[in-house]
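Q: What would this chain look like folded?
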Amino acid sequence: MPESFKTLGVSDELIQGLQELGIESPTPIQQEAIPFLVKQGSDLIAQAQTGTGKTAAFGLPLLMKIDPSLDEVQALIISPTRELAKQIGKHLFRYTKYCKEKIFIEVAAGGEKMDVQIQRLNRPTHIVVATPGRLMDLLDADALSLSAVKMLVLDEADEMMTMGFKEEINQVFHLTRKRKATWLFSATFQKHIQALISKNLAPDAHRIKVEWSNVVNENIDHRYVVIDRSEKDEYIADYLKAQQERQGLIFCRTRLGSVRLGEELTQKGIAVGVLQGELSQKDRDKVMRAFNKKRVQFLIATDVAARGIDIEGLSFVLQHQPPEDFQYYTHRSGRTARAGRTGTSITLIEPEEKIKITRLEKELGIRFRQLK
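A: My prediction, written as structure tokens:
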């Protein structure tokens, strides 16, 4: 019998919130993490990629462990980017729609005036979702206390370490010494993550690893096109023009490639926004607003620039070239077919690259169809 959120131990109130979002069946990471976190809830080390349903995997048990009668910050979630922090906060808020006792969640991230966030934190707050930099700013301003934090969640821990937040993370561990549990989610476990775990988590921490074959969403239709490099721009332009109202995301490997493609498509009269690593936060927000308000229909992004963005309702992902590492394919294709919807992932490959499709099929347990 297939697992349901009910059999995993999720409360009826939260299940009702999930159903309104169209979330009916748990993903592999949710099936493995939720029962442990609901029943035991002690230290957890989970290896899982973006797009596997991590937010609900830790968010649902976290919400069930909050005592709404206590006016104190009981849980802290750290995420590497502002977009991801806001995404987590939004999802947690939606899950609690039918909870009889209100659970208050605040997001503390850059891009918003600190005074506004301090005012919000003066209200009853049970869960804080924060980026490392803004969290340190708030702590330095004595605007937030972590003394009552019982549960600490590190989401995309590898990304935070790569971004240079080692000192901030160590300080968070020090300031939450009285916590009862740490839940760490990471896509990879390099040396710096292993050192973090050895120093701060219990030796017998529960471990979960979602196998690659279980990572890719079954609702995604995987396709590829064999095409010469010189013909790719024209193919992409024709494909986008045929999409009517459908929104999509186009991936390029490099910043320069994304900028060049954006300029090429704009000249052809196609409304695109470009997300690349050198954009300021202000310009990045401007691009995302234009896309969310459908002033531009398509986004072009590099793998790094796309980390942390969560866009509901994307009909397709188009990859200008296959990723260097098959791990990135799950990040890319997982941007479509969210919340039970279906979607299409199309990869453009040059004739000599066909072996890469075979490798992706083998590594991820998926099947591609060739488009003529």
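The two ends are 40 Å apart (CA to CA).
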